[in-house]
Amino acid sequence: MRLSPELRGAVGGMCRTLSRELSFAKWTHEEDYHITLQFLGDTDPRSIPELVSALKEAAADCRPFTLSLREAGIFGPPAAPRVLWAGVGGETDRLQELHNRIVAATLPLGFHAEERAYKPHVTLARKYRGERVFNSGHLNAFKQEADALHMSWRVEEWVLFVTRMHKKPMYEIVETLTISKK
Question: Which of 34, 99, 138, 150 is catalytic?
């Protein structure tokens, strides 16, 4: 699920500022900011039409909802995190419902949910390479920048991406799926 164009621009600007202070090996391209609903992995292109049909059915009874970005967090060891991310706020119960519907709809096609709990987030950067140990002060710097955003967006559609490794942006939209306006 992509962030709105306005929010992608604001987060991109925030990350350009933060990249001067936080040494991560790779910062996410502005066009690639998204919330993963379900990671599908390597998928046979011939199965895409059936997958799209199942995804459309999964969203058939969903209504648009509002999300926002909130606190920063990390995945990996606190001293040298693997990922810097922004958490998601707003109508997260509706986001969780859409995630559950997608997982249920793709299961008969051979896709499986990850074993770990669903934790919606937007990946901002990967592989901390700073000379100084990463600490909570670094997250406070992010929070000061993020507080300036105060932006939310209305989720009325979501997308099926294909990954194009080593390209920028690396995600290409295969299909845009509309959430009904009930």
Answer: 34
Which burial class, exposed, middle or buried, applies to 68 when counting CB atoms under 10 A from its CB (0-12, 13-18, 19+)? middle
Give catalytic status of residue 99 as yes or no.
no
pTM of the model: 0.90
Q: Note down the domain range covering 160.
A: 5-178
CATH number at residue 9: 3.90.1140.10
Number of domains composing the chain: 1
Q: What is the pLDDT of residue 139?
A: 73
* 138 in catalytic set: no
Looking at residue 148, what is its pLDDT? Answer: 54
pLDDT number for residue 78:
85
Catalytic, out of 29, 99, 121, 138: 121
Low-confidence residues of the chain: pLDDT under 70 = 141-150, 181-182
